[in-house]
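Researcher: For the record, we're logging two predictions in this thread. I'll number them. Prediction 1 follows.
Model: Prediction 1, sequence and structure:
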Amino acid sequence: MTRTPLLLALGLLPILATSACNAADPAASGAQAMPSASAPSDQRPFATTEVSRFDQPWAMTFLPDGSLLVTEKRGKLQHLDLASGQKHEVTGVPKVAYGGQGGFGDIILHPDFARNHVVYVSYAEEGTLDTRGAAVARATLALDANGGGQLKDLKVIWRQSPKVSGEGHYGHRLAFGPDGKLWISSSERQKFDPAQDMGSNLGKIIRLNDDGSLPADNPFASQGGVAAQVWSLGHRNILGMAFDANGKLWAHEMGPAGGDELNLIVRGANYGYPIVSNGDHYDGRPIPDHDTRPEFAAPKVTWTPVISPAGFVIYSGSLFPQWKGSGFIGGLSSTSLVRVAFDGDSAREAERFNMGERIREVEQGPDGALWLLEDGSKARLLKLTPKA
């Protein structure tokens, strides 16, 4: 689907109030252009059990004792005891800028959490003059005997720069890599140009030390400023990152009208947005495809129409041995769970399961079960286990 390259006056492009992760998004419908057939619920290889419900959940992470931390977009952190089903609020969450796609975001554990009890959270925060941006903070998790607790000594270690207007495309997914570094997805806030501007950390994947300091071996470290944070650039809206068993980082991002992507993230690479994309602008204007500009890293999988990817895990458990090494992506507009198969540096959609609701988050539990969080109010937490 090669198109004639179009000279884009990017600074004049309209900024949209919504994107594919909102139900009202013009691209938030449909499935992959050549999708695998969705298995009917009675033919799915897993049983689905509702465990709990949450108000606009965004992310979850398991604690070493098997309990679960769940972020809610309005600004609450919930601790769920899976044995008893009891849910308790953890206080000390930073004030969030709730609205649009903004609010409380991701939560992950420090690699040495068992010793230091340090967690990392991401969220949208207010700026001046009606601006907002994502922030990442680290804190000590102190749970109490009743199942609640507090985030103590919370310290912001990273911020999007600059803060801009609007309430979309924060990204702010978090991951720790095998190198012990903290990885952050920083989306382009629906502003297009910053994804290619090394004076901004928008539209980039960020790599930091666990305390927020800058690794000396980052690809643009010599440039200083926010460029020194950057590992890769030219991204739109990354809502899922995961490392495979070989230490390779994979990330998916929402395209515009079409062109959702799964990318293999390479040190210093430029993924081309908004100069190239396998989708178009929402008003119908074309964007040149990746194959017109080979200097930009091309996605390994694209979806048109979109799946609206959110949440991502590469499965390493034994409960579903047939899926070991597969990636699982939640679909918002596609209301699906998408399985991706990897072959070295290549990937493809292997299966798609219709879940009937927007899927916001995907995690692997300690016993190898797959766990899903639906999107929106009264969203279900689902546990997926093999059928008997």
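Researcher: Logged. Prediction 2.
Model: Prediction 2, sequence and structure:
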Amino acid sequence: MASYVCTGLVGVLGMILAAHRVRRERTLADVRFVADIAQRVLLRPVPHRIGSLHLESLYRSAAAEARIGGDLYEAVPTRYGVRLLIGDVRGKGLLAVETAAALLGAFREAAHDEPALPALADRVETSMNRRAVLLGGSEVGERFVTAVFAEIPLGEPLVRVVNCGHPPPVRIRSGEVRELDRGRSAPPLNLGVLLGEPYHVDVYSFRPGDQLLLYTDGITETRDPAGSFYPLLERLRSWSSLPPRELLERLNQDLLAYSGDRPQDDIAALAVRLPADEPLLPLPAPPG
């Protein structure tokens, strides 16, 4: 009789545990579904083509359960050219996601209105400062974002860059890989008011056949099991002939292999190429 009772109790316990597991799996599926929707709103895929430019984006969260974080990117066609943004919010969690959403909203709106790139960065900075003050708390001075604003005007063989404490963009040209950095980086967003330094715009040539890579520091700070940092420029020299989609796919796979399939940080990247064998196409008319 005792054996029958024990068997029955074990069976009931197994049913309870199985039902609990099913509920947890359903809850996790619902959370992931909501997170996927949130990511599509916050980090919507960039168009694969804007005028003559070919674009691709990459985003990967370090946590398998997470879908969104503080890394961000955007590409907006305007009457001033195609304007690009890559950024990295300090910190993790909901606050980082909220800050990224505020930054993207400010950029998407101001990109159509501000004729100069430094003015665009300044307007986004102002929006971030207002938001930080409204949030209050003891972390106001720590809610900063490193970012790069870039602009590729139609019909001009150049790219304009305003760097706000972020890793510099990389230009790939006929096997040559060069960081676009003249050492004039401004402070990160939300710290500029404290330091009072102006935004500098640097201009670089960007000819047909060139490719531009904007990325967050989760890429260059990836370590192998021995603790060595990921050699991004060296890898890019081997992949200089790849178009944007293949380039980012190869980069993502190589980062996973380099880290032993153990991502250590969120990563985001934006690749833009001006084909050498295609005619210049006009940008789509901006909304409004």
